[in-house]
């Protein structure tokens, strides 16, 4: 669902409202497609009148219909009730910023449809994880919901539109689902202050009861920082989590106890990566540093402050590190500073990739580096820095990429990309987007 702002205003609040207003209008237009004449925005409405509204949500469903008594204009086509509902939806959006699924009213099917349309319109998908069998994909959004999609059904030659909808959707967290990973049996999801475990077998039977939840030992009982990143360490059967409290926490998956805390970052941590050949973990955050940790000694062994290197620095974007990946002695990272390939042993940047937009996710794939961030495209880079391809998707910005490389399901070997929309783009090869899954 897309809409554009017809009016502008010198007031920031008014400008936000104008855009929000038309967004709600467009949501109603899509939901109420059966109505023959959905009224257009009144051409008589000027920015000055917007700024005079003391209760702008009243105008969401009523005044927007234009000059004259709006009820009489709309009652014959049955639109008046619809626009009243849109007005109430606008009130919730204006006052709360977004509508939580639990706020949807079950008393009116029309109202529920409008709320659901608005939720999809304002949805962000932060995280993805592939099932151990490789046939299912979990996606977590900003409303705390997790949706399970059947990749095998969506990729089938007999697939229909319904095959691209979730097999099951459930409320996992009260706030956004920032990160997810899968073990041999479990899906682990992280939100504000806690990590939860779900059995894949039970979820696929639509029995979505959490198996357990754990909260790291924070410095105060009032601290509830978001957990931005989860990382499995298979050799230790442990989980590393990091986020808003600027620390890395290690949890033993066998006992569920937290065994170590790694301190060194001075600001919010965004991302983690594992060096598989050695028990070492990389972390990157708002302080602009990538830190390398030895899990045997629980100590920091290397620090790379990316923004201090002139060829990588972009002061106008900030110093934050938003994504990183590692392959043996090589690391690629980006965010505020430019996306850059580093040789870890020498702490030397070897390739600076020529892309202006900050990148939010990066991964090594065969002899390529894949990245995504601000903008619709998944970028494919040669290690030398040459841009091999930019493949557009459906979301205006991308926050996560997931490569399904499970050997148990070679027919489901795909790349999926998600971000600032309710869609998960599926790439059956790296050359084009095949289709999209819809939350």
UniProtKB/TrEMBL annotation:
Alphabetized GO MF terms: RNA binding
BP term (GO), one: RNA splicing
Annotated compartments: Nucleus speckle
GO cellular component, as recorded: chromosome, telomeric region; nuclear speck; THO complex part of transcription export complex
Similarity section: Belongs to the WD repeat THOC6 family.
Role of this protein: Component of the THO subcomplex of the TREX complex which is thought to couple mRNA transcription, processing and nuclear export, and which specifically associates with spliced mRNA and not with unspliced pre-mRNA. Plays a key structural role in the oligomerization of the THO-DDX39B complex.
Subunit structure comment from the entry: Component of the THO subcomplex, which is composed of THOC1, THOC2, THOC3, THOC5, THOC6 and THOC7. The THO subcomplex interacts with DDX39B to form the THO-DDX39B complex which multimerizes into a 28-subunit tetrameric assembly. Component of the transcription/export (TREX) complex at least composed of ALYREF/THOC4, DDX39B, SARNP/CIP29, CHTOP and the THO subcomplex; in the complex interacts with THOC5; together with THOC5 and THOC7, plays a key structural role in the oligomerization of the THO-DDX39B complex. TREX seems to have a dynamic structure involving ATP-dependent remodeling.
Protein name in the entry: WD repeat-containing protein 58
Gene it is expressed from: THOC6
């Amino acid at each position: 669902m897309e809409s554009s702002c017809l009016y502008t205003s010198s007031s920031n609040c008014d400008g936000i409202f104008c855009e929000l207003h038309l967004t709600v209008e467009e949501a109603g237009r899509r939901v109420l497609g059966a109505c023959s004449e959905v009224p257009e925005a009144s051409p008589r409405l000027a920015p000055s009148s917007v700024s005079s509204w003391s209760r702008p949500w009243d105008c969401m469903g009523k005044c927007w219909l234009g000059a004259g008594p709006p009820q009489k204009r709309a009652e014959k086509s049955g639109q008046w009730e619809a626009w009243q509902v849109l007005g109430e939806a606008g009130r919730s959006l204006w006052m709360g910023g977004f509508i939580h699924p639990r706020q949807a009213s079950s008393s009116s099917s029309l109202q529920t449809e409008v709320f659901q349309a608005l939720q999809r319109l304002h949805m962000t998908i932060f995280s993805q994880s592939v099932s151990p069998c490789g046939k299912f994909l979990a996606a977590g959004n900003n409303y705390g919901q997790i949706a399970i999609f059947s990749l095998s059904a969506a990729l089938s030659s007999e697939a229909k539109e319904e095959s691209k909808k979730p097999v099951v959707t459930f409320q996992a967290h009260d706030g956004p689902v920032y990160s997810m990973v899968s073990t041999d049996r479990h899906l682990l999801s992280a939100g504000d202050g806690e990590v939860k475990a779900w059995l894949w077998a039970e979820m696929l039977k639509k029995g979505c009861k959490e198996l357990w939840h754990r909260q790291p030992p924070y410095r105060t009982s009032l601290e509830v920082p978001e957990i931005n990143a989860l990382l499995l360490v298979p050799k230790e059967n442990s989980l590393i989590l990091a986020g808003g409290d600027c620390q890395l926490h290690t949890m033993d998956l066998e006992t569920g106890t937290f065994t170590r805390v790694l301190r060194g970052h001075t600001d919010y941590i965004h991302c983690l990566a594992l060096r598989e050949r050695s028990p070492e973990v990389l972390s990157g955050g708002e302080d602009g540093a990538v830190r390398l940790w030895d899990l045997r000694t629980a100590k920091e062994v290397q620090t790379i402050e990316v923004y201090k290197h002139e060829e990588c620095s972009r002061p106008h974007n900030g110093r934050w590190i938003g994504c990183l990946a590692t392959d043996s002695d090589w690391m690629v990272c980006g965010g505020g500073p430019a996306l850059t390939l580093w040789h870890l042993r020498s702490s030397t940047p070897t390739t600076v990739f020529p892309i202006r937009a900050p990148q939010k996710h990066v991964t090594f794939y065969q002899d390529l580096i894949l990245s995504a961030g601000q903008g619709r495209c998944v970028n494919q880079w040669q290690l030398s820095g040459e841009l091999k391809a930019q493949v557009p998707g459906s979301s205006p910005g991308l926050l996560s990429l997931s490569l399904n490389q499970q050997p148990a399901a070679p027919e489901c070997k795909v790349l999926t990309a998600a971000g600032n929309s309710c869609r998960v783009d599926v790439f059956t090869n790296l050359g084009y987007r095949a289709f999209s899954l819809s939350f």
